[in-house]
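Q: Got a minute? One more chain.
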Amino acid sequence: MLHIGWKKIYEGYDVVLVGRIKEALKESGVECKVRVDNPVQNRMSRDVAFGGNPLVINSIGVDTSANAYSVYVPKEKKEFAEAIVHGINRN
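A: Always. Here it is, folded:
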């Protein structure tokens, strides 16, 4: 998904923090988009496409629920949104 005209203000693995960021941005009137990426699952899909076995990857104890979250806001609201995120991280 392309985010033309949008800037990333947060990237991490904390789904609770992402929820708090979304709520704070909404309360401040800032629109946002959240991208969810599971790097392990994406790697497994690629390996399966080339003949790999996802069970082999899972048998070593890899947590396939480790989602990475990215929060994007319109580029003209980036500085304002970053200040909101900074305030959330301090609480």
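A: Confidence is low (pLDDT under 50) at residues 55-60.
Q: Perfect, thanks.
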